[in-house]
User: Fold this.
Amino acid sequence: MSPLDEITTIFRREKGFYRLFSLFIKKYKSYERVEKGISVVLNNPTPDEKRAISGFIGKDYSKNSTIKLTAATMEKAILKTKYGKQLDSVSFQEIVEAYLGVPLVSNREEEELFLTDRKAYFDNLESTCSSSLFVALIDWIRRTKNNRFYQMYNNDTVSLTKVMHYLDNAFALLPLENYEYLAVFASNATGNPHAFDVNENEGKLFIYALQIIHSLESDWEIRELSAEERAELLYEFHILTDDLLNFVSVFQATGKNKNGIDNMLLYGASQEKSFFHLPLKEVVKLSSVTSASGKKRLFMIENSSVASHVVSELLKHDIDETIVSGNGQFKIATLKFLDAFVENGGTVYYSGDFDPEGILMAFKLKKRYGDRLNYWNYDVKNYHAALSHEPISERRLKQLNNINDPALQPLIQEIAEIKQSGYQEKMLVKIVENLKGL
Assistant:
């Protein structure tokens, strides 16, 4: 055994030196050297540390609360040992490296090595992939410093490799010619129909990857999504979730299917004057929607019970208007039905509850349809007519801070001052009378 090996073996066996050498290793990581002037401070040294260092340096540290040592001091102490003459040409940095047992690597070198390895990992994924969309995803990952794929690479490369294999297979199936259920799509891509379920890690990253691809082709903003936003994103790629329970309630609308033929379901319902639930499975067939009366307008009523009452009153008075209800929230079926109506030249008149949630829904439609969306019976005067004694918490009111539509500001300010909800149920007569007068 060489003198260098012998002295480093002694240092390793004596636990009183462990923390001291760890501090010098840490210094190297920061400064990329352990030169004579480099010093370390050992705070609150243990009795073992005091004994080992005092004996080695030849100075009593038994009463010290801190011990400060330089690399030069360590080198001088080493030269006084029986190995001193043989280690005369050996620096303390070399001794620290021998103590560690592997080459010293600085933080900068570790970072460079990490980045090199990471680049090689994603380069390999790209070179073996089967989808141009997957290449676009890899390119986005490289250009984006902070993303979930890099985070997963840091924490669990094995799981990331599995996810990336799934994504490559999934992207190779796109674009889908026909609409397909998520479970069927996942089974075709991975062999597991539940691989892309929302509660699975693969499913979360699948949605994240779809957002990335969609953002490259549109103004889509990558963000945390609600259930309905996830459904809308999947719909953009012709992937459907639970479409039978995803429906829009429709009265007196007609439309054409993508094959150019009249939609007989809407036609039959308009002939029967039925207010019925049209599932997403049927909505996806539509290329255009219009009012059965040909008036190019429809009335969107947020509350389903109010919508049902209004339809009953329209039937009673033989008033021919088109009514749509989202049943308290905007499912993808509702939005896509309204899309088909607006894209065909129609205008939507929206009426909702006077609370933060209702206003947010109104604003969402306004952002989506612009001038083709009119607020209907939705102002300060009608808010007072619909007032209840139901308080609105400050937490809920804060939801309105980011709404920048000038047309809604008077209503928002009034609600913020009164802090009470207003409900459509108190406006039934007003809504019906309004429709009668059109």
The chain has three domains: 3-105, 108-240, 247-436. The first helix runs from residue 3 to 13.
